[in-house]
Structures are given as C-alpha cells and as structure tokens.
C-alpha cells in the first residue's frame, strides 16, 4: 500500500540522509492516491507535489488518460508499434509527465534538483539504499544481466540527464 511505501522511504532513504533536502513528485493517475501520498509525505515534513496540484497548468496531452494520450501521440508509429508494447509506452509517458512536473516545480519554487530518484510507488524498501554522491547520467541499482533486463522500479538520475529520459516518449517533439 502507499502507507507502507511512504514509511519505507522515510526509514531507508530520508532519515539516513539528514543533510539532504527531498521533495516528492507523484504522477499516479489517481487523484485519491495522489492526495493520500501527499498527506503521508506532508506528515513527514516533505514538500510533495502531485499532478492534481498542477491540473490547470498541465499541457493538454498530459491531461488525457494514458490510453487516449498514447493513441493520439503515437498514431504514426506504424511498424514501430510492433516493437514497442503499450505497457512500455505507458511507462515512457510517465517518465515524460514526471519530468514535466519536476521542471515545473523547479521553476515555481526556484529550487533546482541535484539528484533525481525515480521510484515506483508499489516498491517497498527493506533496507537502506545508498545515495550516489556524484552521478553523471543514470544509475540502475538492479540489473539482471542473464535476462538482459534493467528494472524501472528504482532509477537514479543526474538532473541534466533526466530530460533525455522524459523525451523517450516523444523523441521527435
């Protein structure tokens, strides 16, 4: 549940890093879930920003539900669609949306990011995770080389690299 997720972040990431300033960005596609996550992190004194907070500033394409947006944005995929699953497009769209949200929060608060952690809300941390002190590009802590997989549950990004991840959804935009 979201409560367990929030508590695991507090215990294994936020409390072990007392000098870091964290803010939470949530793009869950469910306003009730976003409101709950915002409340949970606010109880932990974390600045939390959700898509629902920015509904009036959202670009039109980000306001659509995922299936409608994918259909509208990728009409011209043609043969590429054979190689890219709808699930992958949904994941890439979330990368795109959360990057828009990150840049908008930075613009409105005047506080630039120095490190970005992309973590799925269905992940529960069971032990401390190390925060990279210097990062250029991206770091995937969980890789399965035997199956040629890199998992999207947790991803560290240099803020200069985060826009590139966001552009994967609409590479020609």
Give the SSE layout.
Elements (H helix, E strand, L loop, with lengths): L1 H13 L8 E4 L4 H13 L3 E4 L9 H4 L2 H8 L12 H24 L6 E4 L18 E2 L3 E2 L4 E2 L3 E4 L4 H6 L6
Parallel strand pairs: 1-2
Antiparallel strand pairs: 3-7, 4-7, 5-6
Describe this protein's structure.
The protein is α+β, with helices and mostly antiparallel strands and 173 residues long. Helix content is 39%, strand content 13%. It has a 3-stranded antiparallel sheet, with no helix packed on it. A two-stranded parallel ribbon has the order 1-2.
DSSP strand count: 7
Give the terminus-to-terminus CA distance. Answer: 36 Å
- Outline the low-pLDDT stretches: none
Strand content: 5-15%
Integer-rounded radius of gyration: 16 Å
The major beta sheet can be summarized as: 3 strands, antiparallel
On the 0-100 scale, what is the average pLDDT? 79
The backbone outline, from C-alpha atoms, is globular
| Structural class category | alpha+beta
């Amino acid at each position: 549940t979201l409560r367990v997720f929030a508590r695991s972040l507090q215990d294994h990431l936020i409390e072990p890093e007392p000098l870091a300033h964290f803010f939470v960005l949530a793009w869950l596609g469910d306003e009730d879930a976003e409101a709950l996550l915002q409340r949970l992190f606010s109880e932990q004194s974390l600045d939390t920003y959700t898509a629902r907070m920015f509904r009036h500033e959202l670009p039109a394409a980000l306001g659509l539900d995922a299936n409608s947006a994918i259909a509208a944005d990728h009409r011209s995929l043609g043969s590429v669609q054979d190689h890219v699953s709808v699930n992958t497009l949904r994941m890439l769209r979330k990368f795109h949306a959360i990057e828009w949200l990150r840049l908008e929060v930075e613009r409105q608060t005047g506080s630039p990011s120095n490190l970005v952690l992309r973590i799925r809300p269905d992940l529960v941390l069971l032990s401390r995770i190390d925060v990279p002190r210097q990062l250029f590009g991206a770091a995937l802590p969980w890789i399965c080389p035997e199956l040629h997989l890199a998992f999207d549950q947790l991803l560290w990004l240099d803020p200069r690299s985060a826009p590139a991840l966001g552009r994967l959804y609409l590479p020609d935009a």
